[in-house]
Amino acid sequence: MSIAILAIESSCDDTAAAVVLDGQVRSNIVSSQEVHRLYGGVVPELASRAHQEYILPVVQLALEKAGISTRDLSAVAFTRGPGLMGSLLVGLSFAKGLALSLQIPLIEVHHMQAHILAHFIEDPQPNFPFLCLTVSGGHTQIVVVRDYLDMELIGQTLDDAAGEAFDKTGKMLGLPYPAGPEIDRLAQKGQPCFAFPEPSVPGLDFSFSGLKTSIRNFLLKAETATPGFKTDRLPDICASVQHSIVGILLHKLEQAANQTGIREVAIAGGVSANSELRKQLIQLGKEKQWEVHIPKMAYSTDNAAMIGITAHYKFQQGLFAPQSVEPLARWHL
Fold first, then answer.
1. DSSP category for residue 176
2. N or C: which end of the chain has fewer CB within 10 A?
3. How far is CA 192 from the centre of its chain?
4. What is the pLDDT of residues 191-216, one digit of tens each?
């Protein structure tokens, strides 16, 4: 009997739905919310309202593209957390209602676990165990992945995430939100000629708050000494900031590989779409003789296909959620 799962992702500002049939993605629809560009960041109340508006047409389109109806579904999966509470509630409530009406199981999915399992949507797939650096606007983690649902967090940020460092830097530079892709684009036109200190953090943990302060102080001093500095040297500033953030990430990842002895290494999360991170990881992998895994762009940023593939493995083990399940804004991996 086929396993057909409708997956819903609504953790932040993307409304997404996908259909996964027997572990194969049949559709993957994402509707982004452009309204947040006006405010330089995600406004939680506006995000939840937009989810309410978009979720039904997104789900309908996902089912249509997959060529199935709700009667064919085996389960409904949803992102339980972590994320914005209002946004999570919209996806969870929709999933609950649909599953209840169809009398089929609910499957809760951890957003960051799903980012990691996005590597199993298409070939080539990692072999267990592997290390995964998960980097996004809200999280920066190093995870040992022993099986589809067996993961151990061995390093994480103590304050800000790498994605937040990109976005806050972009705000200092007057770039549009989200700033990460814009910094990546501009960095390709510049050179990393300005140095920023790497935070001294023991073990495999990260910290980006000090780096943000260092960048802010550098910009204030440079703009005071040379008015128009930010505009004139924008590509070089972006290249330097990107070089610093990527260097911090890969330095810790290399430490983790040395400590664990694991030679299969992957990246996941929205920041894994960064071209410099991808390029430098491939180069480091060649030097260290790692087997490197980089997700397809469509599965790097928030999407429902990754929720669906995670739910597929949970369905196989009968790991279903009760109708009384509630969202979790914070959820330890």
1. P
2. N
3. 25
4. 999 999 888 899 999 999 999 999 99
- 4-116+300-316 placed in CATH 3.40.50.300: no
**135-181 residue pLDDT tens:** 988 899 999 999 999 999 999 999 999 999 999 999 999 999 889 99
CATH 3.30.420.40 placement within the chain? 4-116+300-316, 126-295
Which homologous superfamily is 126-295 in?
Answer: ATPase, nucleotide binding domain (3.30.420.40)
For residue 255 the two structure tokens come to: 């430490």
Q: How far is CA 306 from the centre of its chain?
A: 10
What the block records as the tokens of 252 is: 């810790």
208-243 burial, b at 16+ Cβ within 10 Å, e below that, comes to bebbbebbeebbeeeeeeeeebeeebbbbbbbbbbb
**Contact status, residue 65 vs residue 55, Cβ threshold 8 Å:** no
Give the three-class secondary structure for 54: helix
pLDDT exceeds cutoff 80 at 38: no
pLDDT at 187: 98
